[in-house]
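Q: What would this chain look like folded?
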Amino acid sequence: MTKLTHLIGILKDKASQSKAALLSKRTTLSLLRATSHDSFTPPTFRHLSTLLSSGNGSRATASTAVEVLMDRLQGTNNAAVALKCLIAVHHIIHHGSFILQDQLSVYPNTGGRNYLNLSNFRHNTDPTMWELSSWVRWFAQHIEQLLCTSRILGFFLGNSNSRNNREERVSGLTNADLLTEFDSLVSLVEGICKRPNPACNNGNRLVDEIVSLARGDWDVIGIEVCVRVSEFRERLGGFKFGEAVELVCCLKRLEQCEEIVVMMEGSRESRLWDSAKELKEKVGMGVYREEGKLVNESRKLRVSESDRFAARVLSYNDFLRFPSGRLL
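A: My prediction, written as C-alpha cells:
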C-alpha cells in the first residue's frame, strides 16, 4: 500500500508539473516542484529559492505567489505536501523579501490574519502519513504562533533585519508593551515544547528538516527572550503591582519549559534560564511584600471602620433613664 501510494504521488506530481509547464505558469510550476508528494525528502533550497523569486516582482506577483501556496496547503489531504507547503511558508518568514512577507502577513485579504486551520489535519492511508500528520498539526501551530508573535513585535522573527538594535528597541518600550511581547514569546516556547517525538519517524529526512527549522527558531526566540529578561532586570522596582504579577506568571511558564527545551535541544542555555529564575525570585519577593502591605492596609481599614461603627452605636450609659432608674 505504501509503495502504491508513493507511485500515485509521483504520477500526480509529473502530471501537475507538465500541465503547469504547458500553461507557462511559472509560480505554480515552482510550487509543485517544491511541494511534491515524496514523503521522505524535503524541498531543496534551490526549489524554495525559485519559488520565492517568482513572487519578488511586484505586489501583484507576491500576492499571487502567497495565494497559490496557501491554496495548495489548504487544498491538499496529503501530509507530505502539507509539510512542504509549511516549510515554504517558514522559508518566506526567514528568507523572503519584504513584499512577500507583507503579503503573507495580511493573508487572507478579507481578514488580515493568517489562520492555517490545520489543527484537525489527518492522513491515515499508511503509518508514515499518519505520523507525518502529527507533524503537520504541530508545525502549522508553531508557524501560526510565529506569525502572531512577529505581528506583535513588528518584525519577522528570524529575519536578518530583526537582529539590529535589539536592546535599543526594547529599552524604548513601555512596561505594558514589553510584557505583551514577552507573553507572546513565552507562548512560542511553550509551543516548541509540544513538538512530536522525531524518534518515531525512523530518520525521515522530511521530519529531520522540520526539527532543524524549529531548532533554528529556538535559537532566535531564546535570544529575544533573553534580551527582554535583561531589560526587565534593569526596570526592577519600576513595575506596578499588576504588571509585576503578570511578569511573575510569564516567568513561571517559561521556567516550566526549561527541562523539555534542554532535553530537546541537547544543551542548556544557562544565561537565559538562570537569569529568568533570578528575576522571578526578585520580582516575586516584591509582589509578596506588596501583597502584605495591601493586606495590612485592608485590616487597618476594617478596624477603623469598625471603630467608627461602634462610635455610632449608643452605649448603655447613653440610654435615657426615668427618675425611677428604669430604662425607657
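Residues 17-24, 313-328 have pLDDT under 50 and may be disordered.
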